[in-house]
Amino acid sequence: MKKLLWLLFLGAFACKQPAQTETSADQQPVNDPHTFSNSAQAIAKHLDLDIKVDFTSRQISGKASWSIENIAGVDNIIFDTWKMQIQKVTLGDDEKAASFELGKEQPVFGQPLTVKIDNSTKKVNIYYTTSPEASALQWLTPQQTSGKKYPFLFTQSQPILARSWVPCQDGPAVRFTYNATVKVPAELMAVMSAENPQTRSADGMYHFKQLHPIPSYLMALAVGDIAFKAVDKRTGVYAEPSVVEKAAWEFADMGKMVDAAEKLYGPYRWNRYDLLVLPPSFPYGGMENPMLTFATPTVIAGDRSLVSLVAHELAHSWSGNLVTNATWNDMWLNEGFTVYFERRIIEALYGKAEFQMQEIIGRQDLMSTVEDKGDTSRDTRLKLDLAGRDPDEGLSDIAYEKGYAFLRTIEENVGRVAFDEFLKSYFSKHAFQSRTTEQFLEELTTAFKDKTNFAEQLRIKDWVYGAGIPNNIPPAVSPQFSAIDTIIANWQKSKQVNGLSQQLKSTNQLLYFIRQLPPSITAADMSLLDKEFKFSQSGNAEIQTAWYTWAIQKQYQPAYSYIESFLSSVGRRKFLRPLYGEMIKTAEGKAWAKKIYATARANYHPVAYTTIDAMLK
Question: Domains in the chain, ordered, with CATH?
Fold first, then answer.
C-alpha cells in the first residue's frame, strides 16, 4: 500500500475511537478498529432482508429491517456502509420517518450511517441500493461461467465487505439471526448461508432463514444457473449443471468428514452442511459460510486429492462460525484453530502419513511467509495490530500455520487427550459467541493451572505477541517425504527420470518433489521432468502453481502457454499472487504479466485484482 494511502487511513482513524463491540452477555465490550458501529450502546440483533437482484444494473436494492436493542439508552445507532445509496430510513413496523446521516467516506472502511433513535425504538428499516462496484459482489457474464448461458452473482463478505451489500454493524463480534426474501430472474436460483432450497422456484422468489446468530462476514448470497445433488442425508453439493456431478463425486467424503469432526469436538450445530462450487473467479479456496461453504472449482482435481479444503471449511463450523474471533486482530483464533481441526479430521479419515505430509507442506508455507515478511515483522505475530489498515492485509499463513503450530505446541505440552477435552469444552461453552485472544489465553492457562510454569514452558508470550517463530515449535516429520529427499538426491547425480512418475503419485508427494527441486535446476532438466510427469498440463492447481513458478524463474518456455491459460481462467488469489510475483522480478517478465493481466483482470474478484493491481504498479 502506498505511503500516502497509509497516512490517509491513519489520519482518518486518529479522530475516531475504535468501536466498542458487545460480544456476549458474559463479556466486556471489545475494541474493534474496523467498524464505525456503536454496538456496545445499541446493537442489531435480527435482520429481515427483502431485496431484488438486478443483473442489468449490477445492483441489489431493497430493505434491511434490523431489530435492535438500545442497551445504553442512546439517541442513535450506527451502521457500516460502503458506496451505498440510502433512499430513506424508517422506524418500527409503522415505518415512521427517521432522521439519518451518512458520514464522510473513508478509504476501505466506507461511511457510517447514523440513525436517530430513542428508548422505545425496536426496529430500524433501511431502504438502499448497492453500488455497481460493491466490493463484496462479483457479477459474472454468461461467458465467465461454465454453462456460458446465464449470468452469475456471488458475494464475499469477509473480512469487512458485507457493508457493501447490506447496511450492517460490520464487525465479527456482532451476531444476528436473519430471514431473507430474495427476488431473482425466474431462470436462476438463489442460495444463501441459511436454510436453502434444493430445487428452483417457478417465479424467482426465494425465502431463507438463519436461526443461529452469525457475524456479518458470514452473510452470503449466490445467484445463478445452479443445481443440487445430495451426497448423503445431511450433506450435498450445489454447482452449475455441467459441474454438479463431478463435484458430488469429488466430495463424496463430506458426510464422513462431518462424522469425524463430531467425534472430535462435539455435535455439528448447523443442521445441514452443503457446499457450493463457484465459477473460477472466486478469490479464495473456500469460504465457510454457515450451512453452505463456497468453494473454488480448482479443488476439483478429478482424483479427490484436494479435499482437505472441505475439511478446513467444515472445521470452521466450530472454529470461526460457532466460536468467532472478536476482531480481525484475533483472526488466528479462527484460522489457526481451523487448520489444527482440519488436520485432525484428515488424520482420522486418511491416516497419520497423510497428516504428516500436510503438516510439512504447511510448515514450508509458514517458513516461506516469515522469510518474505522478515522475522521481526509485526505481521508475523499471532495477535495482530491492524488499526487503520485493511484487515485483509493480515490474512497470511501466519494466522493459519503459526496459529496451528502454537496449538500443536500446546498439544505436545499437555497431551492430546487433555487438549481435546479442553477444545471440546471450549466450543460448547462459547457456542455462538465471539472471543478475543486474551480471553482464550486466560481460559487456557486456567484449565492447565496445575501444570508447573505452564505459560513459561509454552512460551505463550513469544508465540502470541512475538515476531517470528519460537524455537520450541514441534518438529514436523514424514517418512514419505524423507524417501523423496533420497529420490531427489539420486536424480541430481544421475539425471534419470524414467519411472519416477510411478513412484510419486499423490498430490502431496508431487508438490513436495517440485518444491524440493534444487536451485541449480535448468530448463533442460525441467523438460525431462515435464515429459515424465506432464506437470505443465496438470489439472491440479496446486501442482500447476508450484511448477509454473519454476518455469517462470528458469524461463522454461514450453510451459508459457499453459501459464497464460491458467492465469486467465483461475481467480484464486493463492495461485495468482506467487505467479505474478515471480514474473515481476524481471523487466521482461513484468511486461508479460501486464499483457496477461490486461485481459485476465476482468475475470478476477475485487479481492484478487486489488492485490495484483498493487503488485503490477
Answer: 3-225 (2.60.40.1730), 231-317 (3.30.2010.30), 324-465 (1.10.390.10), 480-616 (1.25.40.320)
